[in-house]
Structures are given as structure tokens and as C-alpha cells.
From TrEMBL:
Stretches of the chain forming a coiled coil according to its record: none
Pfam families assigned: Peptidase_M19 (PF01244)
Listed Gene3D superfamilies: Metal-dependent hydrolases
Protein known as: Membrane dipeptidase
Organism ancestry: Bacteria, Bacillati, Bacillota, Bacilli, Bacillales
InterPro entries referenced in this protein's UniProt entry, alphabetically: Metal_Hydrolase, Pept_M19
Domain of life: Bacteria
Record-linked PANTHER family: DIPEPTIDASE, MICROSOMAL DIPEPTIDASE
Amino acid sequence: MRIMDGHCDALTKLYMNPKLDFDKEEQELDVSYPRLKQAGVKVQCFAIYLSDSIQQPTFEHILQMVDLFHRKIVRHPGMKFIQNVDDWRAVEAGEQIGAILTLEGLDALAGNMTHLRILHHLGVRSIGLTWNYANWAADGVMEPRKSGFTRKGKLMLKELETMGIIVDVSHLSVAAFWELVEVYAKPFIASHSNAQKVCPHPRNLSDDQIKAIIQCQGLIGITFVPYFVDSANLAVPITALLKHIDHVCSLGGERHIGFGSDFDGIEQWMKGLRHVGQYGNIIEALCKNYKETQVEAFLYGNWRNFMLTNLPK
């Protein structure tokens, strides 16, 4: 079965540790080319995320990561950069793995809309508006004041809407989420978030948020962060993921479920999900509980439908 994974932080690890090799099965790298091939991943999103260790992130840091994405990932003969629908279809028709470039957190853009447009020209196709805390555009979900968008943040939303960059609300504050619903006219995603009703972590989505994503024809990437899946257990089994899938389905979201592992952005792992090469363990669990057509949709088909509708033509 084909797989699309909506979020990983391999690019950050490659940036922070230049000795790591995307073309090798590195112990420290959850997402590498050999492991993507092992799993049968057809499309992988790679996030530009500037680590907290970079104390004053700038646009230059983002450009360095874009350069790294080209030098270490899409230059690989087995990979292909996806920027539009034609690129996606070319990946489907061939043997290469598709790579989509995303941004997690607007902090380093410093409110400069020209920087935003440059990233669009460079092929960034989805942007997570915040990480956990506040930036110039909006509050993140862990920001104590729990506010929404700034004036400039709302202007930025209009720019994203005009350019067609996909908005990602994972990490966004609840207040900002609902402000976005009011003013943003296009479908949006939560690339790596689970159901709060199943696991009451602030990073997970309430039922009303899940319904809003379904209503806008968006997509939710079920994530493998153990404490977003089951906060009561230290060793979280893959079967715990199914409770989140069942819950989203119960709200009418069967066609709006995908996966967004957050591999390389986590320091704890679920049982049997230590790296992307172990996606087969998820497939095995899914096939015991769902029809084949449902499993194919969760793994790839729902993401495919969303991307073919929302990527540039």
C-alpha cells in the first residue's frame, strides 16, 4: 500500500548534525531514504523547523534549510520535489518518492510578506503558523495568554490564501483556530494532531475543531507522539492510534484522516513505531480493523485527494 506522511522533522536533524546521511539507515534519523523505501512511503512532507537552540532565528536560517533540503534530500535520485499537481502525478507514475517542503512556525519571517512570497517561489507548499508559543502572527497552543492572531497575522492569512499555500493549524492556539475559521476561505489541515476526547493533551483537537476541519474539507494527520496518543501509559501500543481514528470517523471524518508521524521531532516512540520503516506495523493493525479501501484512504488516498485539490495546478 502507498503511504503519505504529512509531517517529519528530519530536515532539522540534518541541519543540526551535518554528519547525518539521508541516504543511510542512520540510527539517529527516523526518516531516511532506505527507511522510506522499506515502508513503501510514496510522499513525505519535510518541515523547516528552527530548533530552540537557534536563539535568534532569521530568514537566513530558513534559506539555509531550503538549501539543505535540495542538497541532501531532493538531489537524491530516488526522490522528487513536489511543488504542483503535475509533480504529484509524475511521482505516482514513477518509482521516485515525492518530497513536499513545509514550514513549521512563522517566527523567522519577522512579519515580512516578501519573505513569505519568496518561500512560495522556493516551493514551500504548507505552513504551520506557530510552534507552541507566540510569534508575531499568532499565539501557539501552549502560550499562557491564550490569545489569537495579531493584526499583521490576519494580513498574513490573506497572503497565504491568495498564494495558495496550505495552512496548518497544528500547534495553533484555540482562539486563533476559531479566528482562522472565521476569516480563512480555503481548506486547511492539522498535519500532526490527534483527538482530545481520546487523549486530553492541549496539542490535540477538540470535537468542534475536528468538525470544523471536516466542514472545510481539510485533513487531520494522526500523529505518533506517544503522549498525544495515550497519556496514561509509558509504552503506547499501535492499537491506541485506532481509538483516535475511530473517534474522528464517528464525527464524520473518515475521508479526512491521514497520518503525520512527527518522526525526528520526538524523543519518545510508540511500541513498534521507532522509525518510518516500521509503517508496516500500522498497516497490519489497520487491516485487522478496517476494510481495505478504508486502510488505503487513511494511508494515502485522503491525503492524495486533498493535495490534488489544493496544490497549485
